[in-house]
Amino acid sequence: MSNQIKDPDQWTTGGEPMTGAQASYLKTLSEEAKEPAAFDPDLDKAEASKRIDDLRHKAGHA
User: Fold this and answer.
1) Range of 37's domain?
2) Positive or negative torsion for Cα 32, 37, 40, 46
3) Where is this region: Disordered (predicted)?
4) Residue 9 lies in a domain
């Protein structure tokens, strides 16, 4: 078993709509990073994950 983190583009469920938790966290991070336009309710799971990672760095959470 590997503990390696998979690239979101390789997720089998990556094309599904983002989860409620992802949407909530993404909304919060976009506001903290002063980039409210970064929140898009139509993102899929993989896109949301990548945007969350980017915003975490910009908001100083990483």
Assistant:
1) 16-58
2) negative
3) 1-20, 33-62
4) no
